[in-house]
Amino acid sequence: MCLAHHLLRECRYLNELDKVQQWSRSVESLLQETIHERNQKPTESIDSLSWLDRLDKLIDENLSRLNDKFTTFKKGLLKCRHYIFNFIRNQAIPPDKNASERGIRKLKIKLKNSG
């Protein structure tokens, strides 16, 4: 699960969709804090249970007052909750896919140019 490209982008979209609510801002803050924690301790294996507990509390919140897109995002978080924080336990797993995208960029440009 790519936090930077998928989950954080979706949180920002939901923040713009409803500027008054705090739920998606809390999810975004949690994700950013985990990335910051990994960056602060790049060689350590960090226990993800406290992060999962915080995520579970957010998932358990009642979102019936909000747009259906919030509920859809919440269901997606619930479905992938077990591997959202894999990068925090295993330092070999990055929180984003930037390195892999840079790795295939030259090939994609060559394919695009060659038609």
> How widely separated are the two ends?
31 Å
Give, in order, the helices and strands: HHHHHH
How many separate domains make up the residues?
Answer: 1
Helix % is over 70%
Strand content: under 5%
Helical stretch tally: 6
Low-confidence stretches: none
Major sheet description? none
- Please compute the radius of gyration using only Cα atoms: 16 Å
Counting DSSP E segments of at least 2 residues, the number of strands comes to 0
Mean residue pLDDT: 86
Q: Which word captures the global form?
A: flat
Which structural class is indicated by helix and strand composition?
mainly alpha
Describe the structure.
Helices cover 72% and strands 0% of the residues. The protein has helices spanning 3-17, 23-40, 49-60, 68-84, 86-89, 98-114. 17% of the residues are buried.
List keywords for this structure.
6 helices, 115 residues, mainly alpha, 0% strand, single chain
Summary?
The protein has 115 residues and is mainly alpha-helical. The chain has one domain. 72% of the residues lie in helices and 0% in strands.
Task: Describe the secondary-structure layout.
Layout: H1 3-17, H2 23-40, H3 49-60, H4 68-84, H5 86-89, H6 98-114
